[in-house]
Design goal:
Elements (H helix, E strand, L loop, with lengths): L2 H45 L2 H13 L15 H22 L1 H11 L3 H12 L1 H5 L2 H28 L11 H12 L2 H13 L15 H22 L1 H10 L2 H19 L3 H14 L1 H13 L1
Helix pairs in contact: 1-4, 1-5, 2-3, 2-9, 3-4, 3-13, 3-14, 4-14, 7-10, 8-11, 8-12, 9-10, 9-12, 10-11
């Protein structure tokens, strides 16, 4: 074998070894990230009490009371909002900075900066059934449905009956059409109003209802305004899209379309000065987590 062939073979072997080492390191990093991400999520779910979940959800719900487009509709004082923010931050710190500190530290180390936020969102989703089966929350839900159901179901049933023989068109994504329609025809105030009503449900949760004082009259007014937005979108501006989704894809797809609208709205809300101020207030209360993580990092060395 020629010398140049030997050199080429050696170089190729070195390259392959380096690639193998890099591949191993990447795979190991991914495994570590997934492992510690799941450990943090499980710890949060295991450690959070029903009241903890309700308090975090209450703060997230009251966040919309600070949106400049709808803040005038709710007479919550700055002191009340600050108190709820402080209590929610205490829950956050106890979970992430005490009960699950080791899991938080390792998830942030191996998964990335968003690991804690993602895990808190996971906790929120995991505790959803418990929060919204609460009698106080269900009462507010029933008030909303009492306002919208008669017109909504009458409109939908009539049109569904009239389109009984209508075939599904191949290639059409009916759910996506409804999603796009809802986003297109909902104004910034419409989005804020729907989110305000969704958030204020938690003010009636029996575990935290005493924390904030929002009158039944205010809640009823907000339910009516949110109901008007809901009916305007479903029974007028996006009527054809709503009927098609209910006919061809079902209630779950219909509800998913409004969930999509909520997700899009959340991104827009971040530009509102009232929301930004509220988020900064929460960050100031929870900033102690950084000190706890620094101490944890020192102890790991």
């Amino acid at each position: 074998m020629e010398s140049w062939q030997v050199e080429t073979a050696l170089i190729l072997m070195v390259v392959l070894v380096i690639l193998a080492v890099l591949a191993f390191m990447v795979v190991r990093a991914i495994i570590y990230a997934l492992y510690y991400d799941q450990k943090l999520k499980k710890c949060l779910v295991r450690s959070a009490t029903p009241k903890d979940n309700a308090m975090l959800a209450l703060w997230a719900g009251l966040l919309m009371t600070q949106h400049t487009a709808v803040a005038h509709m709710v007479s919550i004082s700055r002191e009340e909002f600050s108190k709820v923010t402080e209590e929610a931050a205490k829950v956050y710190l106890r979970l992430a900075g005490d009960l699950c500190l080791d899991e938080t530290y390792k998830a942030l180390k191996y998964t990335g900066d968003e690991a804690l936020n993602d895990s808190m969102q996971y906790l929120s989703n995991a505790s959803w059934p418990d929060k919204f089966l609460d009698s106080g929350v269900m009462m507010v839900e029933e008030l909303f449905h009492a306002y919208v159901d008669d017109r909504f179901y009458t409109t939908m049933e009539n049109l569904l009956d009239n389109s009984f023989d209508k075939p599904r068109e191949r290639g059409r994504d009916y759910k996506n059409e409804l999603k796009n329609c809802l986003v297109e025809w909902s104004s910034p105030r419409d989005k804020a109003m729907l989110s305000l009503w969704l958030g204020l449900r938690m003010t009636e949760h029996v575990a935290v209802a005493s924390t904030v004082n929002i009158s039944r009259e205010e809640i009823s007014q907000i339910i009516q305004e949110a109901g008007k937005v809901y009916l305007h979108l479903t029974c007028e501006m996006c009527l054809a899209e709503a009927v098609n989704v209910l006919k061809f894809e079902g209630n779950e797809a219909f509800n998913d379309s409004f969930q999509y609208l909520e997700e899009v709205s959340q991104q827009e809300f971040l530009s509102d000065p009232g929301i930004r101020n509220a988020l900064e207030l929460f960050s100031s209360y929870r900033s102690k987590i950084n000190d706890l993580l620094r101490e944890k990092a020192k102890s790991e060395k």
